[in-house]
Write a structure and sequence with these properties.
Number of strands: 10
Strand order of the largest sheet: 6-5-7-8-4-9-10
Radius of gyration: 19 Å
Helix content: 40-55%
Order of helices and strands: EHHEEHHEHEHHEHHEHEHEE
CATH class of the largest domain: Alpha Beta
Largest sheet: 7 strands, mixed
Strand content: 15-25%
Number of helices: 11
């Protein structure tokens, strides 16, 4: 039907995601829509055109192929939550293609929301969790109860379980924020300790950060965080840069 208008709920069901995600896409302009009073509507032909835009996804996959299967602790920087989730989904798909076990650590993210968002992006969450091939843990709660050592121990435990199950590497993503550990000094302490810990384990890990969390000292803080990681990724929708961090070797 020409000019067919779809509701937010209809689009969410079609894309296997949540209405809140569709609202974010509409507000950011990622998905064009029209507003009728207080309600959003999406033209079907616009949705079809967006689904046909496959080139950016192929570009992301080819760039992720540069990540090697070796102990690593990477920082990922994205400009918005949708891009961060896109990056995490493609990162996990890469781990699955290499037949590795997965771990997802949440700080500011809700674990159930993460399940929905990753599933909508093609990660078979239910099957992976059922077979102990993926663990999703709230690291913020671990920090609240045990301080820095709480989430660090989770990473250690997941690496141990992975080895016991016969996998060569744990393919993992955490998602800290600048306020995750109460203040920036505690965050730096956590990331430095995590870097030392992962250097001794068979873990390919990324710590994705949202750059829009940055305040007036944001650039300096991100530079300090980069020093706590072996490599740095900058990701923005269809652009991706992967850099070796010489700071980490000093």
């Amino acid at each position: 039907m020409i000019n067919e208008l779809l509701t937010v709920e209809e689009v969410a069901v079609f894309l296997r995601t949540t209405p809140n995600t569709i609202y974010r896409w509409l507000r950011s302009g990622k998905l064009p829509g029209v507003k009728l009073g207080k309600e959003w509507r999406i033209r079907k032909e616009v949705l079809d055109a967006k689904l046909a835009e496959t080139t950016p996804m192929l570009k992301r996959q080819s760039l992720l192929d540069g990540i090697e299967l070796k102990s690593n602790h990477m920082m990922a920087i994205s400009s918005n939550e949708d891009d961060l989730l896109d990056l995490e989904a493609e990162f996990f798909k890469k781990g699955l293609a290499l037949k590795q076990r997965l771990f997802k650590g949440c700080w500011w993210q809700n674990t159930d929301d993460v399940r929905q968002e990753l599933a909508a992006r093609g990660v078979p969450i239910e099957e992976l969790e059922k077979n102990n091939l993926l663990t999703i843990i709230d690291l913020a709660k671990k920090y609240e109860t045990s301080g820095v050592q709480g989430p660090i121990q989770v990473w250690r435990d997941e690496a141990t379980i992975t080895n016991q199950l016969g996998y060569s590497f744990l393919w993992a993503s955490g998602s800290p924020g600048l306020e995750s550990c109460g203040n920036f000094s505690n965050l730096i302490r956590f990331e430095s300790l995590l870097d030392d810990t992962l250097a001794k384990l068979n873990v390919v890990g990324i710590c994705p950060y949202l750059y829009n969390d940055a305040g007036k000292n944001g650039l300096n803080e991100f530079i300090e965080l980069m020093k706590c990681h072996r490599n740095v990724m900058f990701y923005n929708h269809d652009s991706f840069v992967y850099l070796k961090n010489n700071f980490a070797d000093n």
